[in-house]
Design brief:
Blueprint (H helix, E strand, L loop, with lengths): L9 H18 L6 H9 L2 H15 L5 E5 L2 E5 L3 H8 L6 E2 L3 H7 L12 H15 L5 H18 L4 E3 H16 L8 H14 L9 H21 L24 H24 L1 H9 L1 H14 L6 E5 L3 E3 L2 E3 L4 E4 L1 H4 L14 H4 L2 H4 L16 H18 L1 E6 L18 E5 L20
Parallel strand pairs: 2-8
Antiparallel strand pairs: 1-2, 3-5, 4-10, 5-8, 6-7, 9-10
Helix pairs in contact: 1-3, 7-8, 7-17, 8-11, 9-10, 11-13, 11-17, 12-13, 13-17
The chain binds protoporphyrin IX containing FE.
Protoporphyrin IX containing FE binds next to helix 6, helix 11 and helix 17.
Length: 446
């Protein structure tokens, strides 16, 4: 075997560009597009890309490979060792702020952590870590989750719950946790961000929309600043005064990423509820055991990665198996495929146990929250709020998954069309502790 980094063949490049790069763009980098999500799911493009990647891994002996990216040569990470090398490496050398991503993301979070580098990044990371370590708010957040799911279930028009129904409640929960109870009905703030995320999907390729997007972002930031100055008790905003800041931090500028991240968490909740609906044995265990419920949520994040690709850019030359990778090279970790690596004997099965015995956390193939210095600072919040909302659902009703079809006895599909998700909802036959018999604040914390 020759030293250095192998190059994908012309055929492999063509297939990779079609099955992975183009479909990722069509599905949407910053917000899923319902039409293309349905089309790509129908054609099962992730499974086809996974087959290609497995062939390439065998052909190149598990080494990472040069492939054609959107802006030149890109390094496609195919081995567990290389996932660790990049994610666990310095975020100064393997920067999260790659130009493609930044071109889109800057439209709705021009001052956020993920687009920052060097000292500014360290400054904003400190602030994010401090605010998102939200332990004193846990009881309130759990109570908000229960109240809003109760309200949603009683508001349902009939016995079917669609994705839109669930998201109405998730967004109320997000606004109350982020900004406080006064933001419960502030759909406008959510809509403003959604519009900016849709525009960001074009990765800056619609320059004529730039000014309009900038004005919209200014209006959104002003609205967030109002909530920040009110600092309602029990909201994440109320933690701002205690968190470390410098004149550069820009606390308000961090919040649009968090708003997007709450939406990301919501998709994971929908996936987990679907999995629990078709795995009654896990549902039964999860209802009496918080650790198991959290493991079920985490496992849903493995099976359908909410951040499908992690990308980094080198900021200086890096020695890579005897070859020098120059500065400015994009590195792609196709997490959504690697989480299902066929070498994992549980790859395509719902196996919450791997998060209880530590296999999921240990394995570098699997990284739903990334790992290393770029690991998600909202991981603790996501792993608390997701299960809290699931608990609120499970305690109140039974759920039958109507769409999409999932068969627990067959390997789980690579793609899940969340835009089409719906459940038949009925009064519970499974007995659970009554939500009213125990106050949320009296429960064991996750
Ligand atoms: C289940 C829910 C979540 C998942 C799966 C998730 C996943 C991730 C992943 C994979 C990254 C790394 C992105 C990259 O490398 O490009 C990330 C970064 C980040 N996440 Fe999350 N996230 C979740 C929830 C949250 C929440 C609730 C918040 C805040 C309220 C949050 C805030 C952030 C921030 C600020 C970053 C940037 C980190 C940095 O640049 O160092 N996330 N998240």
């Amino acid at each position: 075997m020759t030293k250095g980094i192998p190059h994908a063949s012309a055929g492999e490049n063509l297939q990779f560009s079609t099955l992975y790069t183009a479909t990722s763009l069509l599905r949407g980098i910053f917000i899923l597009t319902p039409f293309w999500t349905s089309v790509t799911t129908k054609f099962d493009t992730h499974r086809k890309a996974a087959d290609l990647i497995t062939k390439m891994r065998v052909r190149y002996g598990g080494r990472s490979v040069w492939v054609k990216g959107l802006s030149g040569k890109m390094l496609l990470v195919l081995s567990q060792g290389d996932v660790k090398r990049v994610l666990d490496g310095s975020d100064e050398v393997f920067s999260l702020a790659n130009p493609q991503k930044v071109a889109g993301i800057k439209q709705f979070q021009p001052d956020s952590l993920i687009v920052s580098q060097g000292e500014l990044r360290r400054d904003r990371r400190r602030f994010n870590d401090a605010v998102l370590t939200f332990d004193p708010l846990k009881d309130r957040f759990r109570a908000v989750a229960h109240e809003e799911i109760e309200a949603l279930l009683s508001e349902l028009d009939g016995t079917v719950m669609t994705k839109e129904d669930a998201f109405r409640a998730f967004r109320r929960i997000a606004r109350r946790c982020l900004f406080g109870d006064s933001a419960r009905e502030d759909d406008a703030i959510t809509e403003m961000l959604l519009a900016l995320r849709r525009n960001a999907n074009w990765l800056g390729r619609k320059p004529w929309t730039k000014d309009k997007a900038a004005q919209l972002y200014d209006r959104l930031a002003a609205r967030i600043a109002k909530y920040a100055s009110a600092a309602e008790p029990g909201s994440l905003m109320s933690r701002f005064p205690e968190a470390p800041t410098t004149p550069q931090t820009n606390p308000v500028g961090q919040v649009t990423h968090w708003m997007m991240a709450f939406d990301v968490t919501s998709l994971g909740i929908l996936h987990a509820l679907a999995l629990l609906a078709v795995h009654p044995e896990h549902r039964a265990r999860a209802m009496g055991d918080e650790d198991h419920l959290r493991a079920c949520f985490w496992e849903a994040l493995r099976l359908w990665a909410l951040v499908p690709s992690l990308t980094r850019v080198t900021t200086e030359p890096v020695d890579w198996d005897g070859e020098i990778v120059p500065a400015g090279v994009e590195i792609l970790i196709p997490s959504v495929i690697l989480h299902r690596n066929p070498q994992l004997e549980y790859a395509d099965r719902f196996t919450p146990e791997v998060w209880l015995d530590g296999r999921g956390q240990r394995d570098w193939w699997i990284h739903p929250f990334a790992k290393g210095p770029g690991e998600c600072p909202g991981k603790g919040l996501g792993l608390f709020l997701g299960p809290a909302i699931l608990e609120a659902f499970l305690q109140r009703r039974d759920y039958e998954l109507l769409e999409p079809v999932l068969d627990a006895d067959r390997p789980l599909p690579y793609m899940f069309d969340s835009s089409k998700t719906s459940f038949a909802v009925s009064k519970p036959t499974t007995r659970a502790p009554s939500p009213d018999s125990e106050s949320p604040s009296g429960r064991k914390s996750a």
